[in-house]
């Protein structure tokens, strides 16, 4: 091989090396942190079966940062009821939740542990926090989940109207499933509140609904309610108009929402 040919081949290889190098430089490593969020418009805001918005429409939003290790932090906010005497539940017009935790999949079973703070900037009292844990597992198209939220003794319980208990336990179970071949999914939830956050008395709440998804949009229609019927609510508070005042936030209603995820 002549010197000229060797030189040409060497130059060609060198040029190839330089032109290939930027391809590696352009490939940024995958981030360990994932940011997700959502914005929602809903016909009303129900929390554990009770209306937090005087049965009026709300806007809501959320953002969460999740690390590949399973650690996460986030915040969620909603408009809410405020002192217009339309409801015995008055949380100052705004709710802002901040939370952090750890989630991990163990052979198909997802565990989730964390702490959440409920903040009400427009209220004179009522901020509190809970620790929580849940276990979820999927069987074919069906997902099952059970969990518990516990609020230990703190200042918020000094304002409890119906219970002398200075802590609260909320236990719940959920079932959901996609409908194969369609954009639809169905979901259900039942929970039990006992302790300082009872409403007239310890109570059950429930919801059942259907969602339709298109790209990043989800339209949901659900029936949400409690077992706090008129008779039981009246007996725990008062009768006639006064009793109806306490029953209204707890009665079964249809709730419609539209959520955009990003």
Strand order of the largest sheet: 1-4-5-6-7-8-9-10-11-12-13-14
Residue stretches low in confidence (pLDDT < 50, at least 5 long) are 1-21
Number of domains: 1
Q: What's the main sheet like?
A: 12 strands, antiparallel, barrel
Q: Which percent bin holds the helix content?
A: 10-25%
Oligomer: single chain
The outline comes out as globular
Portion in beta strands = over 45%
Overall structural class, as computed from helix and strand content, comes to mainly beta
CATH superfamily: monomeric porin ompg
Please, how many helices?
3
Give the termini separation. Answer: 61 Å
Tell me the radius of gyration. Answer: 26 Å
Tell me the CATH architecture.
Beta Barrel
The CATH topology: Porin
In N-to-C order, the SSE pattern is: HEEEEEEEEEEEEEHHE
Number of β-strand runs: 14
Mean pLDDT, nearest integer? 87
Secondary structure elements and their pairing?
Blueprint: H1 3-26, E1 33-42, E2 46-47, E3 50-51, E4 58-67, E5 71-79, E6 94-106, E7 109-119, E8 128-139, E9 142-151, E10 168-178, E11 184-195, E12 203-214, E13 217-226, H2 230-236, H3 240-247, E14 253-261
Antiparallel strand pairs: 1-4, 1-14, 2-3, 4-5, 5-6, 6-7, 7-8, 8-9, 9-10, 10-11, 11-12, 12-13, 13-14
Structure overview:
Helices cover 15% and strands 51% of the residues. It is mainly beta and 262 residues long. The strands form two sheets. Strands 1-4-5-6-7-8-9-10-11-12-13-14 form a twelve-stranded antiparallel β-barrel. Strands 2-3 form a two-stranded antiparallel sheet. The longest helix is centred in the first third of the chain and has 24 residues, at 3-26. It starts with a helix and ends with a strand.
């Amino acid at each position: 091989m002549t010197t000229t040919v060797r030189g040409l081949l060497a130059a060609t290889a060198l040029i190839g090396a330089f032109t290939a190098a930027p391809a590696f430089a352009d490939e940024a490593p995958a981030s360990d942190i994932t940011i997700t969020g959502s914005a929602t418009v809903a016909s009303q805001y129900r929390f554990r079966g009770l209306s937090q918005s005087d049965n009026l429409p709300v806007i809501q939003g959320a953002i969460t940062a999740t690390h590949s290790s399973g650690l996460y932090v986030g915040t969620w906010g909603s408009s809410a009821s405020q002192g217009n005497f339309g409801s015995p539940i008055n949380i100052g017009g705004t709710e802002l939740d901040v939370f952090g935790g750890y989630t991990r999949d163990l052979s198909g079973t997802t565990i989730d542990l964390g702490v959440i703070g409920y903040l009400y900037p427009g209220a004179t009292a009522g901020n509190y926090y809970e620790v929580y844990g849940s276990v979820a597992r999927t069987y074919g198209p069906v997902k099952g989940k059970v969990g518990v939220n516990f609020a230990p003794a703190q200042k918020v319980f000094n304002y409890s109207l119906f219970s002398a208990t200075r802590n609260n336990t909320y236990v719940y179970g959920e079932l959901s499933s996609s409908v194969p071949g369609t954009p639809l999914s169905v979901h259900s939830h039942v929970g039990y509140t006992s302790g300082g956050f009872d409403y007239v008395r310890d109570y059950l709440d429930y919801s059942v609904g259907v969602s339709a998804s298109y790209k990043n949009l989800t339209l949901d229609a659900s029936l949400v309610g409690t077992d706090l019927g008129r008779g039981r609510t009246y007996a725990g508070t008062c009768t006639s108009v006064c009793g109806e005042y306490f029953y209204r936030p707890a009665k079964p209603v249809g709730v419609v929402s539209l959520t955009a995820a990003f």
